[in-house]
Design goal:
The protein is an alpha/beta fold and 305 residues long. The protein has an 8-stranded mixed sheet, with helices on both faces. It is built from 9 helices and 8 strands. Strand 5, helix 7 and strand 6 form a beta-alpha-beta unit. Helix 2 crosses helix 6.
Length: 305
C-alpha cells in the first residue's frame, strides 16, 4: 500500500520515550530453542521456513495453495495452472528473505486464535503465510517448543493498489475466511477484531494521518487485543538510510512512483502507542537485509474496557 501525504516532521519527546522503551533483542521468554516436532522428528527452522514459503507462495500460481504436477500428482512444476508468475516470485522473495514472517511464528507473538485485520496488506502474503503455518502445524510438522500458529477465524485485508488486490483475491479465492478489499486505510472504517497488523506502511502518511490511524486501531481492539507494526527506526543511522533508499527504489519499480516518507525514531512510535493505552515492546530485527526494521508489539491491557 502506498499513500503519500504531506506533513511536518514528528515532534515527540524522544528523551522520555527512550527511557520508557523496552527493547528486546534475544528475550529468553520469546526465543525458541531446538526441540522436536509433534511427530517426533527434530525440527529444523530452515527446512520449516522453506516449506512454508513453498506452500504460501504456491497459491499465487494455482490459487489453491497446492502445487501439483498434472501428470503424476507429485509436488512439482505445473505449466498449466492459472495465476501470476510475478505474484508468485514476489511472494517467494518476500517470505523467504524478510525475517518478519518466520519471527512472528518463532517468537510466539500471535494469539492462539482470532480475527485479523491486515492494513496495507499488499497481495496478502501474510494471510497466505498464516494459512500455510496452520496447515503445517496440523500435519504435525512443527517444533514442539514453538507456540502453535494461530487459528484464523477471519482475516480482512485492506490495500490501496488495485493490482495487488487482484493478485490477492485470485490467490485466496478458495479461502472463505480471507477477505481482501480495495481501501484507503486513512479513510476506511476498522471493524472490531482481535489482531491488527500494519507492516512497512505507516511512514507513507503524514504525522496527523499516522496519529489518526493509530487512534482508530486502538478503538478497534478489545481488552487483550494485539497490534503488531513494523517500522523503520529513523534513529538507525546508516541502516535506516539504506532501508529508506531501497524502499524508494522498490516503490518506484512497482509503479507507485516516488512517495514522500514521514519516519520517526522507534521510541517516538512507542511513546505514541503508550499514550493510547497500549503496553508496548520493541523487537529489533535480526537476520535478513541490513535494515533498521523494528517490530512494535502493542497490547491492550485486559483491565481496559
Amino acid at each position: 500500500m502506498r499513500h503519500p501525504d504531506q506533513g511536518l516532521a514528528s515532534g515527540h519527546d524522544r528523551g522520555s520515550a527512550s527511557a520508557a522503551s523496552q527493547e528486546i533483542h534475544d528475550d529468553a521468554g520469546l526465543k525458541a530453542k531446538s526441540g522436536t516436532t509433534r511427530s517426533g522428528a527434530k525440527p529444523d527452522q530452515h527446512t520449516l521456513h522453506r516449506a512454508l514459503v513453498d506452500a504460501a507462495s504456491a497459491r499465487y500460481l494455482t490459487g489453491t495453495g497446492e502445487f501439483r504436477n498434472q501428470r503424476d500428482g507429485r509436488s512439482g512444476h505445473n505449466n498449466h495452472v492459472k495465476g501470476s508468475r510475478f505474484a508468485y516470485h514476489f511472494a517467494r522473495g518476500k517470505l523467504g528473505i524478510d525475517p518478519l514472517f518466520i519471527d512472528l511464528l518463532r517468537l510466539g507473538v500471535l494469539p492462539a486464535q482470532g480475527r485479523f485485520l491486515d492494513l496495507g496488506c499488499g497481495q496478502a502474503v501474510f494471510a497466505a503465510w498464516l494459512l500455510a503455518a496452520r496447515q503445517a502445524y496440523e500435519a504435525g510438522n512443527w517444533p514442539a517448543c514453538w507456540a502453535p500458529p494461530p487459528v484464523v477465524h477471519s482475516l480482512h485485508g485492506l490495500e490501496l493498489m488495485p493490482r495487488d488486490v487482484a493478485r490477492a483475491q485470485a490467490a485466496l479465492a478458495d479461502e472463505p475466511r480471507v477477505r481482501i478489499e480495495l481501501g484507503d486505510i486513512c479513510q476506511a472504517a476498522f471493524e472490531s477484531v482481535d489482531v491488527i497488523t500494519i507492516f512497512d506502511v505507516l511512514h507513507y502518511f503524514g504525522p496527523a494521518a499516522q496519529d489518526d490511524v493509530l487512534r482508530r486501531i486502538r478503538a478497534a481492539l478489545p481488552p487483550g487485543g494485539l497490534f503488531v507494526a513494523r517500522v523503520g527506526d529513523a534513529s538507525g543511522g546508516l541502516r535506516f538510510s539504506l532501508s529508506r533508499w531501497v524502499d524508494q527504489i522498490v516503490t518506484f519499480v512497482r509503479g507507485h512512483g516516488f512517495s514522500s516518507m514521514y519516519c520517526r525514531p522507534v521510541d517516538d512510535w512507542a511513546q505514541s502507542l503508550r499514550a493510547l493505552g497500549f503496553d508496548v515492546r520493541i523487537i529489533r530485527t535480526e537476520g535478513g537485509p541490513p535494515f533498521a526494521n523494528t517490530m512494535l508489539i502493542a497490547r491492550v491491557p485486559m483491565e481496559h474496557a
